[in-house]
Design goal:
Elements lengths: L2 H7 L3 E6 L8 H12 L5 E4 L8 H14 L3 E7 L5 H13 L4 E5 L18 H8 L5 E6 L9 H14 L3 E4 L5 H13 L6 E5 L5 H11 L5 H10 L3 H20 L5 E5 L4 H10 L1 H7 L12
Parallel strand pairs: 1-2, 1-8, 2-3, 3-4, 4-5, 5-6, 6-7, 7-8
Helix pairs in contact: 5-6, 9-10, 10-11
The protein binds flavin-adenine dinucleotide.
Amino acid sequence: MKITELFTKKKPTISFEVFPPNELYSLDEVFGVIDELAKLKPDFVSVTYGAGGSTRSRTVEIASKIKNQNHIEALAHLTCLGATENEIDNIITDLKKNNIENILALRGDYPKDGSPIKHGDFVHASDLVTYLKNKNFAIGGAFYPEGHQDTNDLLDLFNLKIKVDSGANFLISQIFFDNEEFYKFRDKLKKLNINIPLVAGIMPVTNAKQIRKITSLCGCTIPEKLRKILDRYENNPKALKEAGIAYATEQIIDLMTSDIDGIHIYTMNKIEMAKKIMDSITNIRAEFEGEHNGNFGTTK
Ligand code: FAD
C-alpha cells in the first residue's frame, strides 16, 4: 500500500526510522530490531540511505524485509546528490522488484570534510521528486521546522514549496525539541497552500554529547527544559535515558493532541526506547483509531 493511502485512513500515523547495518549493528541485529519494532504495530517503517549511496543494497534489502516478511509498509530513503539517472533507475527497479511503493526523496548532505562529490544528474531533492513522479511511488520529502542550514528561513520555505509542487505527497520533519517551532512552521505552510500530510520527526535523547553534536549541525534549538536534563544527567546514562524518553513522550502526546498528521520516531535502532514510548501512549493511540477528518496540515 502507498503511504499516501494510509494517511487518508489514519491520523496520526505512528512510524519508525531504522538504519542499515554499520560498525555497531550487523544485518542480523538490524533484522532483530525490525522484528521487535513490528510487534509495536507501527503504520510504516522507514530505512535510511547512506550518503552517496553507501548502503544502497542494504536499504533495499531491509525495506524488503519490512514489507515482505513483517508485512508493514516500508519507506525507503533515497538520496540523489552525485547520483546519475541510471543509478536511480537501478534502485527504482530493485525497489519495484521488492514491492516497495514509498520513497523518501532526499538530496543528501555534502561531505563534512569538504571532499568533492562525483558529478551527478540531480542538484536538489525537488529534482529527484520530479524524476520519481509518474513512476508509481508515493513520494515523501524532508522539511525543517527551524530552517535548513544551507539557506535562510524564507528561501527554504519557497524551496520547500517547489519540492511540494514538483510532486511530493507528504513531508517528514527534521528533529525538533520545541513543538511550538513545529506549529509555527505548520501555519506558514498553510499560508503557502501546502496541504499535504506533515509528519513530525521525534528523536528521544539518550546521549547528551550526541544530541549536542546533532543539534549544532542541524541548527535546531534545545529548549531550557531539555538543556537542564542534558546538564543534570549527562554523566548518568540510565537517568538520561529515562528523562530523554519522558521528554520525547511528552512531545508526542502534545503533538497527537494538536491534530498532527503523523509522528515518525527516529529509533536509532534502539528497541527498548521505542517500546517504552509506545507503551506510554497505548490508550492515547487507541483514542485516534479510525478517526480522520480528511484534512492535512491544518487544525480542526
Ligand atoms: P533539499 O530539499 O534539496 O534542500 C536542501 C537545501 O537546498 C535547503 O537549504 C533548500 O532550501 C535548498 N534548496 C532546495 N531546493 C532548491 C532550489 N530549487 N533552489 C535553491 N535552493 C534549493 N540524509 C542521508 O544521507 N540519508 C538519509 O537517509 C536521510 N534521511 C533523512 C530523513 C529526514 C526526515 C530528514 C529531515 C533528513 C534526512 N537526511 C538524510 C538528511 C538530508 O539529506 C539533509 O538534511 C540534506 O542536507 C538536505 O536534504 P533535502 O532532501 O532536505 O534537500
